[in-house]
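Try this one yourself first.
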């Protein structure tokens, strides 16, 4: 991560030198002939100061998923730097060259994207040796794309005679009681320079999920939420983005509403009670996709190829356009753009009795889309709900601005592909 950010700073220096050479004929911008208009040093300080600030914000929002050089982060860092520099120049009214500024930004972004593309060509994996009795967690790590599982040892079995190699990470289940020999093996590996990490931390990084069997009382989730300062900002951003995009989604809603009305008898908008943040019930709005009497036999999960769907409703489910009215729920403060999907009260009551820590989903505001939606799709039984819960709780624990941007970006792909639709 730090090497990527260092490469960004170096790329900025190269970009500024190239831009200075093109504009002034001298790659040393501080020695360039500016026709007596002023010193370029303030501009240089603002650009590099903005780059350091943007890089620091990038580190804060990196999250816990195993990092890979990201094109999106390159865009964010360059964008924040350009915005910071432009604001500083306007406020201070110091000398600056528009061609130098624009060319530096363009070349810098090109170089930042290029060195990330080169880095992404390299094999990207972490070699792991596990000490745990949790076979399901070990199998999940074995299936993770960037985890190379070399060996799994039981906490009580006889360990190998030699410590783990330094290039391999030794992952230890801190909840397990190690035998004396295994504890000695872990200690010897640490002394030999091997990186020792906890199973919970590594599992979260490589799977983007919370290992439910490793939760104690749920405080591991509520404490980060209580300490987070992101929630107030998140609400403001939800409102600003939704209002700014209102001309688009309102127009789409009008077209979809006409199609629903012409397709089948019944109301255009379907209203349903859902459980929100801190168990507050609210009315969720969706375009009707099923026959008017679809739940005459009581509440039930939607199924693949559900015969209750109307013709237009099937398209709306696949394209997720049925969820457009939920943006009104966002304006009202009942939903966020990103968060765990709100569930119906009857299902919440059932799952809280049978699924540990299910209630922890309600500590934050539910969302139109979420980490579980872009990774797992739709749940139509309790087993699927447990799997989705591991993603929802991961989001609860690691919610951040950059994480929300990542989820919204992946949600666009979900809409284009119809992933998870029922």
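Now uncover the answer:
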């Amino acid at each position: 991560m730090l090497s990527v950010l260092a490469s960004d700073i170096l790329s900025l220096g190269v970009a500024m030198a190239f831009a200075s050479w093109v504009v002034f004929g001298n790659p040393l911008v501080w020695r360039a002939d500016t026709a007596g208009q002023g010193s370029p040093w303030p501009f240089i300080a603002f650009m590099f100061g903005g780059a350091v600030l943007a890089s620091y914000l990038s580190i804060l929002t990196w999250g816990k998923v195993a990092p890979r050089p990201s094109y999106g982060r390159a865009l964010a860092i360059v964008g924040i730097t350009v915005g910071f520099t432009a604001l500083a120049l306007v406020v201070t009214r110091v000398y600056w060259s528009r061609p130098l500024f624009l060319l530096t930004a363009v070349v810098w972004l090109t170089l930042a994207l290029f060195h990330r593309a080169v880095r992404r060509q390299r094999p990207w994996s972490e070699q792991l040796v596990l000490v745990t009795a949790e076979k399901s967690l070990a199998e999940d790590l074995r299936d993770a794309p960037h985890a190379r599982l070399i060996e799994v040892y039981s906490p009580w079995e006889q360990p190998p005679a030699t410590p783990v190699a330094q290039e391999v990470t030794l992952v230890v289940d801190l909840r397990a009681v190690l035998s004396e020999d295994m504890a000695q093996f872990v200690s010897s590996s640490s002394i030999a320079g091997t990186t020792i990490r906890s199973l919970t931390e590594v599992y979260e990084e490589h799977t983007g999920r919370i290992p439910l069997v490793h939760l104690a009382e749920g405080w591991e989730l509520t404490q980060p939420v209580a300490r987070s300062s992101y929630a107030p900002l998140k609400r403001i951003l939800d409102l600003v983005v939704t209002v700014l995009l209102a001309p688009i989604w309102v127009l789409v809603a009008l077209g979809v509403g006409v199609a629903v009305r012409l397709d089948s008898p019944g109301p255009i908008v379907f209203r349903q009670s859902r459980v929100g943040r801190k168990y507050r019930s609210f009315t969720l709005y969706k375009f009707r996709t099923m026959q008017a009497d679809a739940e005459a036999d009581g509440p039930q999960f939607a199924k693949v190829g559900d015969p209750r769907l109307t013709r237009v409703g099937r398209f709306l489910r696949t394209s997720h356009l049925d969820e457009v009215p939920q943006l009104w729920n966002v304006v009202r403060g009942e939903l966020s753009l990103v968060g765990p999907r709100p569930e119906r009260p009857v299902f919440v009551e059932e799952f809280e009795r049978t699924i540990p820590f299910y209630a922890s989903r309600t500590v934050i505001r539910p969302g139109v889309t979420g980490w579980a939606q872009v990774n797992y799709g739709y749940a139509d039984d309790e087993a699927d709900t447990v799997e989705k819960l591991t993603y929802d709780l991961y989001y609860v624990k690691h919610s951040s601005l950059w994480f929300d941007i990542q989820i919204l970006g992946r949600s666009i792909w979900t809409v284009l592909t119809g992933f998870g639709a029922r």
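Discussion: The beta strands are 126-131, 147-153, 169-172, 195-198, 269-275, 281-287, 336-338, 367-369. The chain has a mean pLDDT of 84.
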